[in-house]
Design goal:
The protein has 19 helices and two strands. The chain is mostly helical. The chain folds into three domains: 191 residues, Up-down Bundle (Growth Hormone, Chain: A), CATH 1.20.1250.20; 56 residues; 216 residues, Growth Hormone, Chain: A (Up-down Bundle).
Length: 489
């Protein structure tokens, strides 16, 4: 039977409509990805926002140096606590709602800091800003639901890169704002960015109803927060309090006991905050252990390189200002962003496991470069760029490995827990680098500065951590999802 002309025209219209529909969907997905990446960038900026004015905080807030150091610790604790809890909330109530809540928390925290003129309000504001870090794991887990399959790896890579990019470019940006305006200008700018972030999420990011049902495990969330806070505070403040002091030991032991109790409670809970049985699967467990190693490696270069750049020439450093040090570090952050599409391509071509191993290897090579080449600022910048490329590749692959290993209804909580493991790595790195740098110092005009050999040891430790991450990654077994994809290919 010969089709009528009208039938031919309708079929042609349908064929013509398919590419147009795909183009429209691609543009919509791209807008969502760009919005989520912008939000992740703004949230991660909070990590380095306060560093340029850190030496002035005791005077600005009318407090002591040890008390002022809590301004940075508060954000660290807020972020570590928020990531697994925000991920679970996203699985239960919808990820767009949690993204909006995280954005509004960032607005609130920024305003509290901008309006507060003493230690307590600024501490509260910084802790609330830290809670906004929950935006990143929730945004990453949402990528799989709002992007076409061929675009997902690229989107996850770009979103993951914002963790490092925000921290790297935040230093020179914050230094410029602090030098140009009053210190409160840092928080007024962050409040403005957070408002824009909130508006974009409300308009562009869809509210997808997830299949997960249940309630937030309030007891689990509270005990996790208490246990984490106690352990991370002990690690962060151990140098100031004394590693064997009663305060440090008590904080660490109490934290461990609470976390063990939390683990037993979660295993007996039908609807836990974090499914520890899923987290104990070899693919998930080993990915989280690799996250600790790579998070350790990322933080090591973020601490060591700027400090060495800023140490006076007489002390073996390069006498750079905070702004100059930030500018030397900025290419590393841009390298993470540049590697986002490359990371996505590597994940699609080689798989997430080999991509993560490759990223950790590049990170280790960056540290070895710093170990052998540390005689000029440009050499440190090259080492930082190489290490940052490794971090960018590794950070992109980890969420993909996690999401391939867990049900979609648990993706937010699982990615959030992986983010927590990275935070544990960065905290351990910060503490260990402080110990190493303090172990070998020179007296320079009444101020102790680390020696050249102390910086060299830090680079070596960072390289070892990265290569440990490579070894752990190579032990990760293939998941059923990956095996199925290989059979189809």
């Amino acid at each position: 039977m010969t089709p009528s002309p009208g039938t031919k025209v309708e079929a042609a219209d349908r064929r013509a409509a398919v590419p147009q529909q795909e183009t429209t969907e691609h543009r919509g997905a791209l807008a969502i990805v760009m919005t989520l990446c912008f939000g992740g960038l703004v949230a991660s900026l909070m990590q380095t926002l306060i560093i340029p004015v850190q030496p002035e905080l005791p005077r600005l807030l009318h407090t002591s140096i040890p008390n002022a150091s809590w301004v940075i610790t508060a954000t660290l604790l807020g972020g570590a606590i928020a990531m697994p809890i925000a991920g679970r909330l996203g699985d239960i109530y919808g990820k767009q709602r949690v993204l909006l809540a995280s954005s509004m928390l960032l607005v609130l925290g920024s305003l509290i800091c901008a309006l507060g003129g003493s230690l307590i309000p600024v501490l509260i504001g910084r802790a609330v800003q830290g809670l906004a870090m929950g935006f990143i794991p929730v945004g990453i887990s949402l990528m799989r639901e709002v992007t076409p399959p061929r675009m997902t790896s690229m989107a996850v890579s770009a979103m993951s890169a914002t963790l490092g990019v925000g921290g790297a470019i935040g230093l020179p940006l914050a230094a410029w704002i602090a030098q140009t305006f009053d210190w409160r200008g840092l928080f007024w700018v962050s409040a403005g960015l957070a408002v824009l972030m909130t508006v974009l999420v409300a308009i562009i990011v869809p509210n997808i109803k997830d299949a997960s049902r249940g309630r937030l495990d309030i007891v689990g969330a509270i005990t996790l927060a208490i246990g984490l806070s106690a352990v991370l505070v002990a690690i962060s403040k151990g140098k100031d309090w004394g590693w064997l002091s009663a305060t440090t030991v008590a904080s660490f032991v109490i934290g461990l006991v609470v976390l063990l109790a939390w683990g037993f409670y979660e295993l007996r809970k039908n609807d836990p905050l974090v499914d520890l049985r899923t987290s104990a699967k070899p693919a998930v467990l080993l990915t989280n252990l690799a996250a600790i190693a790579i998070g350790f490696g990322m933080m090591a270069q973020a601490i060591v390189v700027p400090m060495m750049l800023e140490v006076p020439v007489a002390g073996g450093g390069f006498g750079q200002s905070i702004m100059q040090a930030g500018l030397w570090m900025a290419p590393g952050g841009l390298m993470m962003l540049a590697f986002a599409p490359i990371s996505g391509w590597l994940i699609n071509t080689l798989g997430a496991k080999l991509t993560l191993a490759m990223g950790a290897t590049v990170l280790g090579l960056g540290y070895l470069c710093g170990f052998f080449l540390m005689n000029a600022p440009w050499q440190l910048a090259v080492a930082s760029v190489i290490a940052s490329a490794g971090v960018g590749i590794g950070y992109a692959a980890m969420p993909t490995l996690i999401m391939d290993s867990v049900p979609i209804t648990e993706a937010g909580a699982a990615v959030g827990f992986n983010g927590l493991m990275r935070a544990v790595g960065t905290t351990l790195s910060s503490a260990l680098m402080a110990v190493v740098l303090a172990a070998s110092t020179l007296d320079l005009g009444g101020h102790a500065v680390p020696t050249h050999s102390a910086f060299r040891w830090c680079f070596l430790i960072g390289a070892i951590a990265a290569f440990v991450g490579v070894g752990i990654t190579l032990l990760i077994p293939k998941t059923k999802a990956v095996l199925a994809q290989e059979q189809v290919a």
